[in-house]
Amino acid sequence: MASGILFLNPTLKPRFEPGQAVITMGVETLIQQGRIDPAVYLSRHLDGDWGDLNACDRQQNNAALQSGKNRLFSSYQIAPDLKLLIITEWDRSVTTLLLPSEY
């Protein structure tokens, strides 16, 4: 599933450890086309900006951030026809950037 690895800026102060950051083939294609800069959205995710989630999903993320027992999920509407999802596993071992069609 993961086709590439993202390396984080060492000066970034995330609210949680993302583990290994990886991207899917679909996201890699969009990067190569210049349609997205994944670092912008990954930084938002690591800062606790969950993007376009409803209040219930935001609350679940905030609770998971506190407990460290559930995954963290973000959704960013980049363009009318383009959405990016970011999921950090419950154990904070991996953070994956993917398209909804790859979920």
Per-chain topology:
Layout: E1 2-6, E2 20-24, H1 25-32, H2 38-46, H3 55-67, E3 72-79, E4 82-88, E5 94-98
Parallel strand pairs: 2-5
Antiparallel strand pairs: 1-2, 3-4, 4-5
Please report which band the strand proportion falls in: under 5%, 5-15%, 15-25%, 25-35%, 35-45% or over 45%: 25-35%
Tally of separate helices: 3
- Could you tell me the mean pLDDT? 89
Low-confidence stretches: 1-8
Q: What is the H/E string?
A: EEHHHEEE
What Rg is obtained from the alpha carbons, in whole angstroms?
Answer: 13 Å
With strands numbered from the N-terminus, the spatial order across the biggest sheet is 1-2-5-4-3
Keywords:
single chain; 103 residues; alpha+beta; five-stranded mixed sheet; 3 helices; Type I restriction endonuclease subunit M
Characterise this structure.
This is Type I restriction endonuclease subunit M. It comes from Alcaligenes aquatilis. The protein has 103 residues and is an alpha+beta fold. The protein has a domain at 34-83. It has helices at 25-32, 38-46, 55-67, and strands at 2-6, 20-24, 72-79, 82-88, 94-98. The longest helix has 13 residues, at 55-67. The protein is globular. Mean pLDDT is 89; it is low at 1-8.
